[in-house]
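Help needed: design a sequence for this.
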């Protein structure tokens, strides 16, 4: 039960059809162990389906649409990998605005594998950060003024990046969250995406 006056801690999982179910489960396990509420955010539709290994995985209910997300409503952003999901998110004009809203407001963010590509937009938002990511992204990461790391996980300020085919980093994620002091409710100005209304589904 949430004590009177306390805010429910919510984590926004930004995904599209074909997201890596392994990445999602890895992060969700860590977040839920800390008592957080996982909210699935997508560009549209009431449900999406993950990708597990070499085939489609489970179906997940969508908590809210990307257009309606306010960064101020969430204390954490998680973006699982999965080429199908990342390709779809990459062509959605609201995606980069939503991501920037979280990072500019200094809320912790976790990016898995090829999801790191969504950070490489030429704005310098990852400048001087260490990023664990697929080797194919290394040249672009360097162009952005960041450092590419071969380590499976890298924590750099309020950003945690994970690069592993079979992620199992619940402990590292929980340590990261504790270091970022996200056990305390993070308060700040709401940063709506394109002036959209608050997310009623979350």
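Sure. Designed sequence:
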């Amino acid at each position: 039960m949430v004590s009177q006056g306390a805010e429910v801690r919510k984590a926004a999982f930004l995904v599209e059809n074909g997201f890596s179910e392994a990445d999602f489960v890895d992060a969700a396990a860590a977040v839920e162990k800390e008592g957080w509420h996982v909210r699935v955010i997508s560009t549209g539709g009431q449900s999406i389906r993950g990708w597990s290994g070499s085939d489609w995985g489970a179906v997940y209910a969508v908590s809210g649409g990307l257009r309606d997300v306010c960064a101020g409503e969430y204390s954490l952003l998680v973006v699982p990998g999965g080429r199908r999901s990342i390709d779809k998110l990459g062509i959605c004009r609201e995606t980069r605005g939503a991501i920037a809203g979280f990072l500019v407001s200094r809320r912790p963010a976790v990016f898995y594998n090829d999801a790191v590509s969504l950070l490489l937009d030429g704005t310098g938002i990852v400048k001087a950060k260490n990023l664990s990511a697929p080797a194919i992204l290394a040249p672009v990461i360097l162009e952005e003024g960041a450092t590419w790391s071969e380590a499976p996980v890298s924590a750099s300020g309020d950003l945690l990046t994970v690069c592993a085919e079979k992620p199992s980093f619940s402990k590292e994620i929980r340590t990261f969250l504790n270091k970022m002091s996200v056990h305390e409710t993070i308060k700040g100005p709401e940063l709506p995406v394109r002036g959209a209304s608050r997310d009623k589904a979350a």
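Confidence is low (pLDDT under 50) at residues 1-5, 182-202.
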